[in-house]
């Protein structure tokens, strides 16, 4: 056990020494990887912070069922009871708005009062307004209910007030897909950058590696410092990417905060949770080690 720890301590010390011996090239590689990592971190921050914003934005999705002219009050009450019974827990509220009450509400607004006085009779239909509960896919839920309720004989037309929800869901789905593709690009950049860096390191250390092999160094002993070099490069790039993302969020939140407050919203973009950031940093370090392993496998055999 002590021998194993001593070997890994030695490999880590060699990797740190090689980073110090080539500070400019090491820093350039770290900056390149960090810039690529900062973009998905910012994207994940926006996506995560947009979830509560969707709940703060307007009201829950509503469906307005316009009833056919001449539907008697008893049939309207029966329809209201049927909606509550069949929709069940999916709805938060269902209320009936008779045409006379709707007209009275419009007449109470001075903007509409004069225009309504010119009408010979009440043109408004009786309406049933259904407010849905919050769910994972409110737009799809509203569309399914509307499709079922359109088949009812008392319903003339249904208006969905959830178009904004559908658009927001589409936008968030697009962002998730974009982040997935960006994560794939980051993996390629990390692998290619670390692979090329370690390959150049191995070429410059050919004589040192050859001497080590002559005195009995094993393949794993020679390769281990390069693996630590790749892992340290990925870890340093992750820390720098986190710092860059944090610095970028400061001016962004200043601008977005004022914009959100003008709409009565409290919104700020925050970095993902610490466990997620730690896991992503470890994954990048692992990718660096894998790239180094692929690079030195054929370069250290003499």
From TrEMBL:
GO CC, alphabetical = cell division site; plasma membrane
Stretches assigned to the ABC3 transporter permease C-terminal domain: 181-298
State where it is primarily located: membrane
Q: Write out the entry's keywords from A to Z.
A: Cell cycle, Cell division, Cell inner membrane, Cell membrane, Membrane, Transmembrane, Transmembrane helix
Compartments, as annotated in UniProt: Cell inner membrane; Cell membrane
Keyword Nucleotide-binding in annotation? no
Q: Which InterPro entries match?
A: ABC3_permease_C, FtsX, FtsX_ECD
Q: What does this protein do?
A: Part of the ABC transporter FtsEX involved in cellular division.
Q: What's the protein called, per UniProt?
A: Cell division protein FtsX
Give the species this sequence originates from.
Castellaniella defragrans (strain DSM 12143 / CCUG 39792 / 65Phen) (Alcaligenes defragrans)
């Amino acid at each position: 056990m002590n021998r194993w720890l001593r070997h890994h301590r030695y490999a880590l010390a060699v990797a740190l020494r090689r980073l110090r011996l080539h500070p400019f090239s090491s820093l350039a590689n770290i900056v390149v990887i960090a810039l690529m990592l900062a973009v998905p971190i910012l994207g994940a921050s926006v996506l995560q912070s947009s979830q509560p914003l969707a709940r703060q934005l307007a009201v829950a999705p509503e469906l307005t069922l316009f009833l056919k002219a001449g539907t008697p009050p008893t049939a309207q009450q029966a329809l209201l009871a049927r909606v509550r019974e069949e929709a069940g827990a999916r709805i938060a509220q269902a209320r009936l708005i008779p045409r006379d009450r709707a007209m009275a509400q419009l007449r109470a607004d001075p903007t509409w009062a004069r225009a309504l006085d010119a009408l010979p009779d009440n043109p408004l239909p009786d309406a049933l307004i259904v407010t849905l509960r919050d769910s994972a896919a409110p737009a799809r839920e509203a569309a399914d209910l509307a499709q079922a309720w359109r088949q009812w004989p008392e319903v003339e037309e249904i208006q969905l007030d959830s178009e904004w929800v559908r658009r927001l869901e589409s936008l968030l789905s697009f962002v998730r897909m974009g982040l997935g593709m960006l994560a794939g690009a980051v993996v390629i950049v990390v692998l290619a950058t670390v692979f090329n860096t370690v390959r150049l390191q191995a070429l410059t250390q050919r004589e040192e590696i050859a001497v080590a092999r002559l005195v009995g160094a094993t393949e794993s002993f020679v390769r281990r410092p390069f693996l630590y070099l790749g892992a340290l490069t990925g870890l340093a790039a992750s820390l720098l990417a986190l710092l860059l993302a944090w610095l970028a969020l400061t001016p962004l939140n200043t601008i977005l905060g004022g914009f959100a407050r003008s709409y009565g919203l409290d919104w700020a973009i925050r970095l993902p949770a610490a466990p997620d950031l730690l896991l992503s940093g470890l994954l990048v370090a692992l990718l660096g080690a894998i790239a180094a392993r692929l690079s030195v496998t054929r370069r250290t055999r003499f």
